Known about the structure:
heterodimer, A: mainly alpha, 6 helices, elongated, B: mainly alpha
Amino acid sequence: VVFINLGGEYTDIPEEVGFAATLFSSAITEEQRRGILQEKYKIPAGEYPSKELNEMGFIYEDTKSRFLREGRIQTSVDAIVNLINKKGFSLEEALMMFDLSKKEEETIVPLVQEKLRETQAGS
Amino acid sequence: MNEMGFIYEDTKNRFLREGRVQTSVDAIVNLVNDEGFSLEEALGVFELSKQEEEIVISLVREKLSQ
Lengths: 123, 66
């Protein structure tokens, strides 16, 4: 079995793997990708599998950021609920323990509130 | 194709774990330094696997000693 890393950043795409490298390269924008596929490889815009590629998650940096963020959110929500329920923290006090971006906080707060409702309803 | 599916799942799990560990380490350091938690007490707040806990403890100790 041979693994070929096609998603990295490189300035010279080897011709032999040019098509696959273009599909998975993280060094170009989606617009550039479509342009290369259409102009160089004659793939019409309608046949560009953008949805499938996104679902496959082979765009390395997007995949990495997405799952890192998901892991951060998962852990933060559970821990914040524990700090509130078991240690008597307020939501604001608990949030301060985590180095979260504004966007992460906006995602986490409703999830915490929902989990608090569930845990408090169950008790 | 099956192999690629396994690689995807491995990659996903690796980054999920990295995110969980990252967040836990930073928050545990804050709980210990700012709230007077013991390491064990702070760890108890997080729902980590045994493997994640081992990694987190090591990273927290390193950060606390800096």
